[in-house]
Amino acid sequence: MDLDGVVYRGAEPVAFADAGVAAARGLGMRMMFVTNNAARAPQTVADQLTSLGIPTDGTDVMTSSQAAAAILAEDLPAGALVLPVGGAGLRSALTEAGFRLAASADDAPVAVVQGFAPEVGWPQLTEAALAIAAGARFVATNLDATLPTERGMAVGNGSLVAAVTNATGVVPVSAGKPEPEIFRQAARRAGARRPLAVGDRLNTDLAGARAADVPGLHVLTGVSDARDVVLAPPHERPSFLAVDLRALVQPHPAPERAGDWWRCGAAAARVCGPEPHLEVSLAGRTITLDGADPVTVSLDAWRCLAAAAWSAADMGAPLTYQQVPVLEVVAPR
């Protein structure tokens, strides 16, 4: 389960997140909260979730800081000197993994780990660049360009990492999503037999699920919208589509092909024409989608549109953003 954009936005809860998680737990599902946000310690994240009506223990939280520390631990001995560029969550993860923390590049660290924290600025980025130029390994907790907040999209760790890369020419190893290791670590910790990855961002949450060979559930409460999903490349495509976390306990019928049409429930969609375009069947009438005006569709219609568009793209007739409208998906009651 991703956090930013799925369970909360900054300090604000996402609608229906608490009820969705509670209902899923009631059916025996265990939640592991897996986040690319490296600024806070797992227990701090768990405390916030608990305050939002989702009782959580620190052992149920897997951060990209922990994943980065695990990557370093594979190659570096205990006690190795590492320069953290980030917040308390990153420092605690490195310490718990047995590393000593450098204060600056002058300490000659063998590695630099960069994670997001609001206080990261020019002094910290400069120390990172100096250490990397001197030969230190470079690991990033994640490469997310943006971070969802209650005010909108803020600068994410990937944008700050880009400054260090621009200064040094060194591209870091990334520990967080979309790399698969963080998913595998979370699944191992939970003892999962049939894991499901839940996220809002195609190029991290859902791409990571694909890379880890875990089915992905995409929700529309964060970054990637319904049109993004319809146009998703194969390595970012979700296995299941939903509006919000209530979908954890709802059925997910799969669209089935019938000639040119993809059908799911009462909805249907297809890609047709010499210049590919989408058609969708809504309330018994067929509508041609030209990308100009927003269209309100049911969840089943969105499933059909995605299946039709993905099939057409895989057959060499991909649609463009100009050919697909903004889609407002209505949650089932």
Helix content: 25-40%
> What distance lies between the first and last C-alpha atoms, to the nearest angstrom?
23 Å
Shape: globular
CATH architecture of the largest domain: 3-Layer(aba) Sandwich
CATH class of the largest domain: Alpha Beta
Output the structural class.
alpha/beta
* CATH superfamily annotation of the largest domain: HAD superfamily/HAD-like
Q: What would the average pLDDT be, to the nearest integer? A: 94
Query: Strand arrangement, largest sheet?
Result: 6-5-7-8-11
Low-confidence stretches: none
CATH domain fold name of the largest domain? Rossmann fold
Largest sheet: 5 strands, parallel
Beta fraction of the residues?
15-25%
Count up the helices.
10
Number of strands: 21
Provide the domain count: 3
| Radius of gyration (Å) | 21 Å
Can you characterise this structure?
This protein has 333 residues and is of the alpha/beta class. It has 3 domains: 8-62 and 178-248, HAD superfamily/HAD-like (Rossmann fold); 65-174, HAD superfamily/HAD-like (Rossmann fold); 253-330, no CATH class. The chain has helices at residues 17-26, 42-51, 64-73, 88-96, 122-133, 157-168, 181-190, 202-211, 226-230, 299-314, and strands at 8-9, 12-13, 33-35, 61-63, 81-85, 100-101, 111-114, 137-140, 146-149, 152-155, 173-174, 197-199, 216-218, 240-241, 256-258, 261-264, 267-272, 277-282, 285-289, 295-298, 327-330. The strands form 7 sheets. Strands 6-5-7-8-11 form a 5-stranded parallel sheet, with helices on both faces. Strands 15-16-17-18-19 form a 5-stranded antiparallel sheet, with helices on one face. The longest helix has 16 residues, at 299-314. The protein is globular and about 70 Å long.
